[in-house]
Design brief:
Strand order of the largest sheet: 14-3-16-15
Helix content: 10-25%
Distance between the termini: 67 Å
Radius of gyration: 22 Å
Structural class: alpha+beta
Shape: globular
Number of helices: 11
Strand content: 15-25%
CATH class: Alpha Beta
Largest sheet: 4 strands, mixed
């Protein structure tokens, strides 16, 4: 085992391989508050990558209902239970007196999936990551428990009295999932054939189909269960981040070789998704880039949080948490930065509101943005999660996004424009 630094945990941790990082890292942000679980993203991925024999059960992208849903069923609760069993009462976050850029969420004092596996063995020797193989039944129903709510019994006089923020008495939310293309992947760590690798140009995690022998160590070790075994080829497969689009090889979307968003991202009608690439230095740190929307949301504003950072893989998928869900549940899933993220989202300031307009506005990846100031159009009184009120000033700024080559690829405004169709041409005109 080598020692590597995990900024999401705020400390060094044990990992089977030495530090080595790509020049850029593929990353994405989901705004859970906007998702309607239409599954358009799921079917866009399915129809592109997993429509063949042996792939029937594969959903590289899926949207599941929490807290009861999951694909495979109970993927997160089972691993959380295993980690707690290995380290009873030790899986907790130590709040730092003052968080820093290198430990923005404080310090996690518990064991990661790599550190908890040291006492476990298989036929090849000590395990490199704690995990389990899902049963066939757990893979059977991708939408099991869809829209099943959690809550307590209401008193007769209490009907209708539980829909007030900050937390609902009865609740559920949709969780969008695909491979997180982790900085320290569990699948890569566990593969005895070294068939899994991170691309040096963008950090995308891929499986070399020539080297893979279908041992399913990756399926067992991936804490998010996004590596899947295909019986017809006896190899494992996983999300490939639509890397031909990242390379700018789609002739229609990228006529000049501009990197484009993945199929699941580009198809989202709810505008909950934003994808990008961030620069990485030799030590594995994110290079400061205030005008990259990914860097701004994740590292500067800390409004988008990693999913289950305590697993230790340093996932590169980030989420803006839902406002109405009990904080204890969200903190278990996204770490101790939840309250800070929700407070910002409840009343975004001018800069943050501008960046939120960029979600799903273009199929090309936005590498840089800028804003053109506009006039004030509204003042709104907002109730914050703690019950206090705050006045939000809204300016109709123009937000401009630029692609890899510095060419403008999107221009939008905070205030959505209204267009009136001429009555002499359209019967159903306004």
């Amino acid at each position: 085992m080598s020692e590597v630094y995990n900024w999401q945990l705020g400390r060094p941790m044990q990992y089977p391989y030495e530090e080595r990082h790509p020049r850029q890292q593929f990353a994405f942000v989901f705004n859970i508050n906007r998702c309607i679980a239409c599954q358009t993203c799921t079917m866009a991925c399915k129809s592109t990558w997993t429509f063949s024999r042996g792939q029937e059960y594969m959903y590289w992208n899926n949207v599941e209902t929490k807290p009861f849903g999951g694909y495979p069923q109970n993927w997160d609760s089972k691993l959380l239970t295993m980690l707690e069993k290995e380290n009873p009462y030790g899986q907790y976050w130590q709040d730092a007196p003052k968080t820093t850029h290198e430990s923005p969420y404080g310090r996690f004092e518990g064991k990661t999936i790599f550190e908890a596996a040291t006492k476990h063995y298989d036929e090849t020797g000590p395990k490199r990551a704690l995990g389990y193989l899902p049963t066939d039944d757990e893979w059977n129903a991708p939408n099991r428990h869809e829209e099943s709510a959690k809550g307590t019994m209401w008193a007769k006089q209490d009907w209708g009295g539980s829909t007030q923020l900050p937390e609902h008495k009865v609740w559920y939310f949709y969780l969008q999932r695909l491979c997180n293309h982790c900085t320290y992947p569990g699948c890569l760590a566990a593969c005895p054939r070294q068939a899994i690798y991170k691309r040096p140009e963008d950090g995308v995690v891929l499986i070399d189909q020539e080297r893979c022998r279908g041992y399913r160590k990756c399926v067992e070790a991936c804490p998010y269960k996004k590596a899947m075994y295909r019986s017809t080829s006896t190899t494992s497969e996983k999300c490939v981040a639509c890397y031909p689009r990242l390379e700018g090889k789609d002739p229609e979307i990228s006529p000049n070789g501009e990197p484009a968003e993945t199929r699941c991202m580009a198809s989202c009608p709810g505008r909950i998704r934003l994808q990008g690439l961030v620069n990485i230095d030799d030590a594995g740190r994110w290079v400061e880039d205030r005008w990259n929307p990914m860097y701004y949301l994740i590292r500067e504003r800390l409004i988008a949080l990693p999913i289950y950072p305590q697993f230790g893989t340093e996932p590169n998928g980030y989420y803006i948490p839902p406002r109405w869900v009990p904080r204890s549940y969200l903190q278990q899933m996204f770490g101790p930065g939840v309250q800070h993220a929700i407070e910002q989202y409840a009343c975004p300031d001018r800069d943050l509101l501008n960046v939120l307009q960029l979600f799903r506005t273009t199929r090309q990846i936005i590498f840089r943005y800028e804003t053109v100031p506009g006039k004030k159009v509204a003042e709104i009184e907002v109730t914050m999660p703690d019950g206090s009120t705050k006045v939000q000033e809204i300016h109709n700024d123009t937000v401009i996004g630029y692609n890899k080559f510095g060419v403008e690829c999107v221009r939008t405004t905070v205030e959505e424009p209204t267009f009136e169709r001429p009555a002499e041409l359209h019967v159903n005109s306004i």
